[in-house]
Amino acid sequence: MKTVLAACVLCVLSSSEAFAAERPNIVVCIADDISWDDFGCYGSRTARTPRIDALAANGLRFTEAYLTASSCSPSRSSIITGRYPHNLGPAAELHQPIAANIPWLPTVLREHGYYTAVIGKNHMTRENAKVGAETWDLIDPGVTPDNHGAEAKWVQTIEQRPKDKPFFFWFAAVDAHRGWDANKEWVESKYGPQHRPQDITVPSFLADDAATREDLASYHNEVTRFDYFVGQVADALAAQGVLDNTLLLVLADNGRPFPRAKTRLHDSGMKTALVAHWPAGIAKRGSTSASLVSVIDIAPTLLELAGVKSPPPSFQGLSFAPVLRDPQNITRRHAFSEHNWHDYEAHGRAVRSDGWLYIRNARPALAWQGPADSVRSPAHAALKALRDANKLTPAQADVFLAPRPNEELYLTAKDPEQLRNLATDPAHAAIKTRLAALLDQWIDETGDAVPDKLTADTFDRESGDPLDRSKTNAKAERGEFPGKPKNAARINAPGPQ
Fold it and tell me: What is the reported pTM?
């Protein structure tokens, strides 16, 4: 009996070890404030991203991946929990914590044997609690005196990890957040020459002048520095012989920190690059997939691949693991996004479906000029000068538009910058009705709401400077966050998918 029992135990242990060996390691490299089309593999004619391009060429490039918020901490909190921002409690708004009852992806992975680390920009907190050992084995801001992009300790983390566990690494850069420290920390032997203003491709909604080109060149330097360290991660994994069985994801938390990008519901703010590299798990390497993906799908995908049989019901996304097996597979039909307070009062909602983008704005009287750091930028100043001289193009004028339409509708393939609003076109009334009904269903089923008192502006809309409330005796009190009226942090229903 003892011999039989020992054999059974050995068999179970062997099966367990074999299963552990098959589970992929996971590395998420997430950039800060980089638009989807500012990577070479997504068509950028300016930014140099050879290492990310190489990963895409040997992996899978998603062409229809979307964020749930074009705002730093709400976006990251949404990804790490697999939930919509308004289902996170206070974290629907910038710099606010995730509700205490909501499980995090790294916590679940850690419970299933993964070694977990967050290196770089964390920006994710839990309500009434300190995020620590129950979630991450290692937390490090990743900044060194010669690198404030927060990437300096990524390779070190790979090298010093426990070798007897699969790992989940959240490598979060500060690049390309303003204020452009890559310029003064530039190492040409690593990154190549700095980007030249005269070589920049300027988006149609920005001014094409010297100041804007200089601003964009500095931004592209940060994109290239991020790319370099993503390449260093791939090299370190290869050196340890674990690259083949490591799923490496590359994406960004929101669009570039320029007017009509960051915080916007349009593609320039809400669409993200998503490159997956996993030689052992991607069936058709070097392919692209037009399958619609929401970033809330990342957590369920990783849990499935990690062998988590019964994930917590709080995760609202859909696994896109079938797309890794075949890029033609389709896992979702609809993707939803939000625009909540980020320096300025806002409440916007959007749904993407069948190539259409429908936007609804609950605060149409207010402009969508972008966050305060963008408003303070040389690029925004150049637009203001054109505005004051009555020389704005329609694309540029949209930055200042107020009131805005209550509804917007775009066929994105034919209007990639979303400049032609079809919401009032009778020819598209049926599609607008369908998408509006989808959005209503999502709002109802997920417990979204427009509170009576949203958080008000905390920065001046014209200058981007903090508001001086001492002159009005007004207190900078937070309003209600979206979803609070219906206690949406306790609602797990995903809405239409």
Answer: 0.93
